[in-house]
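In this section we walk through a basic example: taking a raw amino acid sequence and producing a predicted 3D structure, encoded as discrete structure tokens. The instruction is simple. Fold the sequence below.
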Amino acid sequence: MGYRDELVFLFWWDREAWAKAYHDALHPHSAGGAYVNMMMDEGQERVRASYRDNYARLARVKAAYDPQNLFRVNQTFVPEG
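The resulting token sequence is shown next.
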């Protein structure tokens, strides 16, 4: 088996562990944001960290236009007043 075959095998063998290890290795070199549409169930702290300084403003907009939190299927803001 060549290097490429080993990588493909490793990827298919344990995708979740590989992805987490990849994230952990790269995260110290990132700006800390994230593409929220690709998030799974990482919770509000991760969403807040992704939007950084914009989170509070966007949460106020969410509270004004969706106070009952009808649109909550994905990683979204919790309405704040």
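Looking at the output, two observations stand out. DSSP finds four helices and no strands in the chain. Helices lie at 3-13, 15-26, 44-51, 55-65. In the next section we compare this with other chains.
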